[in-house]
Inverse folding.
């Protein structure tokens, strides 16, 4: 890691020293630049006032295009946007300033994905299930290129990365499994590899992750202000056992802001565990706000080349502790969907989610909060990416979700209808609960046992709930089910996501009393 970091610092040193020509830190040999319809942004450092000529040439030396850009202040940078390019390569990219020139080689055009978050994103291929096979397979994917920024924090927005852990590289067992929680991200790699297999296009993967970090650290001041959070909490932390920095905006400043000129195809995000301890119930604001803000910032920073509704995929929290009475994980999962249960939705357009609550790993050597099955995580992200980012309208990418409920008052039954065909894996599970109340007693959550499962309907017994049913929830626990054994899946093997719904009377039908199901933000959660 030290050698890579030294290379990165040396690359930056000439520009810092006296206006000598260089590319920005995250451009290098073996990189992937975004393909058409977008144009790739290329920028770097030079002598103030000088003109930089940028030349893209093919393997034979044939010049494909030429661009010029003037070096401007106050920090002496030049920027240009390449004409949109078809996928493929290799190409050489040469920058010239007077008698100086710098050439990047083995450049490909494809799709560039940014992967960010905390330790479950930082877990490397070395740490996952079947790690040896995964590492051995690296050589089969020379057109999936990897890059990892070093963890860094700053109190001000930085123009360029200060340090790099892994410059752009062709994947090898060594750089995919450098160590624990270093590089390269398993979720990012497995997603990128799958995208390459599905699309046949070169894929560039940019890892920007730091374990033990809350969303506030990855958020700009705009996000914090929009959600009514303090923009500066100082350097002291109420949660000293969190391993990463918690000060608002410090990771945005040092690790995201420097990348805003980069043209991207999509983002993958795995974060939230730290926010089960910090500002949990603000996450239904901070997460949608971060997504919207990153989209605006990357679109603006790339001169409009990164699309304004940049596809944004994320992993819903997995599990941590068995038999925990704390519902902060359940609340955080709900808030990850902006309290709507499924994505994309009105508050979170162009997003997709990998449910992971059925991938718990109690015996993980890295702690149960770090499950080793990242293959299923990546597969579920892939389905969402293909549907949302690449427009496969026929692909099922999310599990079943309830659409209707009918109360059979005389029989004490609640029939819940789902959006998809159901596969029932765990018949004795106590995953459904109803909120019972009367005018004189507070809300109380009671288990509603499953008495029957049809192709699209689950029938629940309400024997313990003889009063008004005000709410319905599913899988509302820190560890709701065992490995690949939640109660409900669809026929594609995707788990039904957790939910918290208000149930409002909506009239009577021949089947019973119709209940309107509304995503809840106000029911007592305990």
């Amino acid at each position: 890691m030290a050698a890579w970091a030294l290379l990165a610092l040396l690359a930056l040193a000439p520009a810092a020293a006296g206006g000598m020509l260089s590319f920005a830190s995250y451009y290098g040999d073996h990189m992937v630049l975004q393909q058409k319809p977008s144009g790739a942004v290329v920028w770097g450092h030079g002598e103030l006032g000088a003109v930089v000529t940028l030349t893209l040439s093919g393997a034979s030396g044939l010049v494909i295009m030429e661009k010029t850009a003037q070096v401007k202040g106050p920090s002496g940078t030049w920027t240009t946007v390449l004409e949109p390019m078809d996928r493929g390569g290799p190409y050489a990219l040469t920058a010239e300033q007077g008698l100086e020139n710098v050439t990047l080689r083995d450049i490909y055009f494809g799709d560039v994905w940014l992967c960010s978050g905390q330790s479950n994103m930082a877990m490397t291929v070395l740490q996952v299930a079947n790690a040896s096979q995964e590492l051995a397979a690296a050589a089969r994917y020379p057109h999936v290129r990897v890059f990892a920024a070093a963890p860094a924090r700053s109190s001000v927005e930085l123009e360029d990365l200060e340090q790099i852990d892994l410059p752009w590289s062709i994947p090898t067992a060594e750089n995919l499994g450098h160590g624990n929680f270093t590089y390269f991200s398993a979720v990012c790699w497995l997603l990128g590899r799958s995208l390459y297999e599905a699309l046949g296009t070169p894929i560039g993967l940019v890892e920007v992750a730091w374990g033990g970090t809350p969303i506030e650290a990855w958020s700009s001041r705009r996000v914090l202000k929009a959600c009514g959070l303090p923009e500066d909490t100082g350097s002291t932390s109420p949660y000293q056992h969190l391993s990463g920095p918690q000060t608002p905006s410090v990771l945005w400043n040092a690790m995201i802001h420097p990348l805003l000129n980069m043209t991207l195809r999509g983002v993958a995000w795995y974060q939230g565990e730290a926010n089960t301890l910090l500002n949990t119930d603000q996450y239904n604001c901070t997460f949608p706000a971060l997504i919207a803000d990153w989209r605006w910032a990357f679109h603006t920073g790339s001169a409009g080349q990164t699309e304004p509704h940049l596809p944004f995929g994320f992993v819903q929290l997995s599990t941590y502790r068995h038999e925990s009475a704390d519902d902060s994980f359940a609340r955080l999962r709900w808030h990850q969907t902006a309290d709507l249960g499924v994505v994309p939705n009105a508050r979170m357009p162009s997003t997709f989610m990998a449910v992971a609550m059925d991938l718990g790993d109690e015996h993980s050597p890295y702690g149960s909060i770090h499950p080793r099955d990242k293959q299923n995580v990546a597969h579920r992200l892939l389905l969402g990416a293909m549907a949302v980012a690449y427009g496969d309208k026929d692909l099922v990418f999310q599990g079943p979700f309830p659409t209707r409920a009918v109360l059979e008052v005389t029989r004490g039954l609640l029939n819940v209808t789902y959006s998809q065909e159901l596969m029932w894996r765990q018949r004795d599970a106590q995953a459904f609960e109803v909120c019972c109340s009367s005018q004189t007693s507070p809300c109380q959550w009671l288990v509603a046992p499953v008495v029957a499962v049809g192709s699209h309907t689950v029938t629940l017994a309400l024997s313990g709930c003889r009063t008004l049913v005000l709410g319905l929830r599913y899988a509302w626990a820190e560890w709701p089910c065992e490995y690949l054994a939640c109660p409900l899946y669809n026929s594609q093997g995707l788990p039904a996501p957790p939910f918290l719904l208000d149930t409002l009377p909506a009239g009577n039908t021949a089947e019973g009393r119709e209940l309107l199901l509304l995503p809840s933000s106000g029911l007592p959660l305990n």
Observations:
- Residues 1-18 have pLDDT under 50 and may be disordered.
